[in-house]
Write a structure and sequence with these properties.
With 881 residues, this protein is α/β, with parallel strands linked by helices. Helix 11 (318-333) crosses helix 21.
Length: 881
């Protein structure tokens, strides 16, 4: 190296870093021969994530550079691992044949894979959409767009920050695109675990976004999509198209439509409700069972994905729900038709994702054959479902598009058993192209020709051990052992000498070699051309196939609902516009599937309305089933509002627009929020968003703080819902039996309890809902069932007896006039005759303040026992005990 000259990278490493500079946020997989390699810091990351050996590569004057790599054919194994680990991956391929250049091979990024943009089956959950979301903010509004490139689903909406938060919780996008600088705020509002990518501000400009969308859909106006009332949503949709361009995903023809998500048309559920009801995931992790896993009877991935979206956004349109019920009813009665339909749908495959790969031009031959099989089921399905006297079913089938011409083209063009890829065997059927057939005969007949030539040459020359072989150096050759070397004809040309033999070529061999090799290249070219034409024809039918896919998915769900209703004895719900919820013999759709053999779930009735029974105060011991009753009520409503039958003997449901739950809580230590703070935040959000059609399920509100504080808060919440909650139907499960007096104060509050039976020291949970409150929690019984040490149980029982006796003695002393005038100290402790008691007058409660004033005003020293007894009776009446 010349003096003063800085060491340089090798040309190959320079090229790597120049490509890396274009995609600094991505891990670069760099194709070198038969391997994908990464260098420097990327190599360290790749080595760690993929468990590969970190090695070194010579870097000329600079010495060595870190390197990690894997064979190119293993990319479908390693690429998904990198993306699942939360990394964008840029795939850099060789753009020219190394044999055709003496310089450094040209390379460029051919694909940039992110969590939200992939067509790789190993990165896609068959039963779930892989959404990429875009968000645009303006003051307290947010426009959102949701795009699944693997299916072509593209939706926009606009609303409050909380509204968009519900959609993010429901649709679970794998990646979110926002304006640069908004990342921190988005994480603070919607969660730290989001995968966020950023674009510059210009990508979210309305006019540019509108133009990009019109170009993508090939239209002159977006009016036909009826999305004009969501301008911020349009900005987000346009930004997603910019993001596709930046990640080398342009011209995706499967993205050919745009639809709205109207917040006023589906049931509003916040992320806490989705979590608490375990709609998609169980809080118990791998041991738990989610609702979706119990109700999904779909025969295709398309149906399962649509079902998940239905459950994420239950509808409020009673007419739409009744049309779904009608189809379910038909398939409940027509069991043979249902079985035949499910079998046909099971053979269709995932048409949505197959057609999306066709849109990219990356569809494989066997996927085209599956597409053909799927299209072949369209006519039989249409015939099976038509003319059955069900208007909803006829209307659904009427929307199916005729794809018979494309089916015929696929059937005649493709070989019956095509190879996995062009060049790996026959893909195009015989009889399509005469030249192709002739070349195949030459190619496939090569072995026979060579064997015949080998025999004839052996007979002609007398060289009995003569063999014809092939290698990459000089093609076909004739190998002769040294013992027969003298018999070799003069016209043969010697090409290679081995230890025990020599290899020769002949004019005839060279001519045939040229013919065979030329045939293979020509076969590849012809098949590629015909295959490309077929893919182009498929691309022209993308819209029709997507339409049919949605209809098939809908049929799949409704047939599955019918199967579920038959298996689990579900009933058809009656949806109404009134404000009444009347469930008879309701059951929990998940828990009842987990009951031990021979044991049945105990059903219960629940009645809520806006006139007499708006709020139910639900008391009862631990483990009696209060939480299960709350959840089953919500789940029955949800099932009804996605079009399913429900686990009950009957159900009248006044359509709900919001479902809120506050069941259990966990600390959010990373944000400095305690269990109680989380509980209060969630409850506050509920109280600020109540409507006449809200269903509210509250479980043990206030238990995260002291008894008096918690009871005060719980009481105030019930009062607020009754007085200011617009008639929201509410189930309030609590251990604070002191709340039972609210039934006497507020006309639409009713007390219920879950019954138990005591047998000695044992408690039998009857799990039946009965009218009236209860004041016993049986906590010690539950502790005994949990296997607590005997000493703990005995100590707890002794303490409980002492506390109960203390309360009794306190009442007796008050009735005999032996209680001194209490004096409250600065510590909040009452002193009476030198003894200490906790002050219950610390509660900020009007009833208790009145009692305090009465006691302060009572002259206990001059009061007779009878007067003391009268005072005590008045206080009890005032408390309602």
């Amino acid at each position: 190296m010349a003096k003063g000259k800085l060491p340089e990278d090798t040309p190959l490493i320079k090229q790597f870093f120049s490509v890396k500079a274009e995609h600094p946020e991505a891990v670069l997989l760099y194709r070198v021969g038969d391997f994908y390699e990464s260098y420097s810091s990327d190599a360290v990351l790749v080595s760690k994530v993929l468990g590969l050996v970190l090695t070194k590569k010579s870097n000329g004057e600079k010495g060595y550079i870190e390197m990690a790599g894997f064979p190119h054919h293993a990319i479908d194994v390693y690429l998904p691992k990198l993306v699942r680990a939360g990394h964008k991956v840029a795939v850099c391929d060789q753009l020219e044949d190394p044999k055709l250049t003496k310089k450094l091979v040209k390379r460029g990024v051919t694909e940039l894979v992110t969590p939200g943009i992939t067509f790789n089956d190993q990165l896609l959950d068959q039963k779930e959409n892989n959404f990429l979301a875009g968000l645009t903010f303006e003051k307290d509004l947010c426009g959102a767009a949701f795009l699944d490139v693997s299916t072509g689903t593209f939706q926009v909406t606009q609303g409050s920050l909380d509204y968009v938060g519900t959609l993010l919780a429901s649709l679970s996008p794998k990646e979110i695109v926002v304006q640069r600088g908004c990342e921190k705020g988005v994480r603070a509002k919607y969660g730290d675990d989001l995968y966020i990518s950023t674009l510059e501000e210009w990508a979210f400009v309305y006019d540019a976004a509108e133009e990009k969308l019109k170009k993508q859909f090939g239209v002159k106006s977006l009016k036909g999509f009826a999305v004009d009332r969501y301008p911020l949503g349009i900005c987000s949709a346009g930004a997603l198209l910019v993001y596709l361009e930046q990640t080398r995903h342009t011209g995706l023809r499967n993205i050919c439509s745009l639809s709205r998500i109207d917040g006023d048309r589906f049931v509003w559920m916040d992320k806490f409700t989705i979590r608490n009801l375990e709609l998609f995931d169980s809080s118990a992790g791998g041991e738990g069972v989610s609702l979706i896993s119990v109700i999904d009877r779909c025969s295709s991935p398309m149906g399962s994905r649509m079902l998940r979206n239905w459950l994420a956004m239950p509808v409020m349109d009673i007419r739409e729900l009744n049309s779904r019920y009608d189809v379910v009813s038909h398939f409940v009665e027509a069991e043979e038709d249902r079985n035949a339909l499910q079998e046909m749908i099971g053979g269709i495959g995932d048409l949505e994702r197959i057609i999306s790969r066709a849109a990219t031009g990356k569809i494989m031959p066997r996927e085209i054959m599956q597409l053909g099989r799927g299209l072949g089921h369209m006519e039989p399905i249409s015939s099976l479902c038509s003319g059955r006297g069900v208007a909803a079913l006829d209307n659904l089938i009427a929307g199916m598009k005729d794809c018979s011409e494309l089916l015929q083209t696929i059937t005649t063009t493709m070989a019956p058993e095509p190879a996995a890829a062009i060049g790996k065997g026959e893909v195009i059927a015989r009889g399509i192209d005469p030249e192709l057939d002739e070349l195949r005969n030459i190619s496939s007949g090569g072995k026979d020709y060579l064997l015949a030539l080998q025999r004839s040459e052996a007979e002609r020359t007398g060289i009995t051990s003569l063999k014809i072989g092939y290698n990459n150096v000089f093609g076909y050759y004739i190998e002769v052992r040294n013992t027969f070397r003298d018999l070799v004809p003069k016209e043969w040309i010697r090409k290679q000498t081995l230890v025990n033999a020599e290899r020769y070529i002949t004019e005839e061999l060279k001519e045939y070699e040229s013919k065979i090799l030329g045939a293979e290249e020509r076969i590849y070219a012809i098949e590629t051309g015909i295959y490309g034409e077929l893919v182009a024809k498929i691309q022209k039918q993308i819209v029709a196939i997507q339409t049919n896919s949605r209809i098939i998915a809908r049929l799949d769900i409704l047939a599955g609902f019918a199967q579920l209703a038959m298996e689990r004895n579900y009933c058809r719900p009656q949806m109404a516009k009134d404000l009444v919820l009347d469930i008879r013999d309701g059951r929990h759709p998940v828990i009842e599937t987990l009951m031990p053999p021979g044991e049945e779930y105990v059903p219960n009735d629940v009645l809520l309305d806006d006139k007499k029974q708006q709020v139910i105060i639900l008391t009862g011991p631990n483990m009696a089933g209060k939480s299960a009753l709350l959840r089953q009520t919500a789940l029955i409503v949800l099932l009804a509002q996605i079009g399913s039958f429900v686990p009950a003997s009957s159900a009248h449901i006044g359509c709900f627009d919001k479902i809120f739950t506050r069941v259990g809580a966990s600390d959010n230590i990373s944000r400095g929020e305690s269990t109680f703070m989380v509980e209060m935040l969630e409850t506050s959000m509920i109280l600020h968003n109540l409507s006449a059609r809200s269903l509210v399920l509250l479980d043990e509100i206030g238990r995260g703080t002291s008894t008096y504080d918690g009871m005060s808060i719980a009481r105030a919440i019930v009062e607020y819902i009754h007085e200011y909650g617009h008639g929201a139907k509410t189930l309030f499960a609590t251990h604070y039996h002191e709340l039972n007096d609210l039934e006497e104060i507020y006309p639409r509050v009713r007390n219920f309890h879950i019954t138990v039976r005591e047998v000695g020291t044992q408690v039998i949970f009857l799990r039946k809902l009965k009218e009236g409150g209860t004041a016993h929690s049986f906590g010690i019984h539950v502790a005994r069932m949990a296997g607590m040490p005997k000493e703990v149980i005995e100590s707890a029982e002794n303490t409980l007896r002492a506390l109960e006796m203390h309360d009794a003695q306190h009442l007796v002393s008050a009735s005999t006039g032996q209680i001194g005038k209490p004096v409250q100290t600065k510590s909040g402790i009452l002193e009476t005759d030198g003894s200490l008691q906790l002050s219950f007058f610390q509660l900020d409660d009007p009833a208790l303040e009145s009692l305090r004033d009465k006691l302060h005003g009572a002259d206990l020293n001059n009061m007779t026992p009878l007067q003391a007894f009268d005072l005590l009776r008045q206080m009890k009446e005032e408390l309602g005990v």
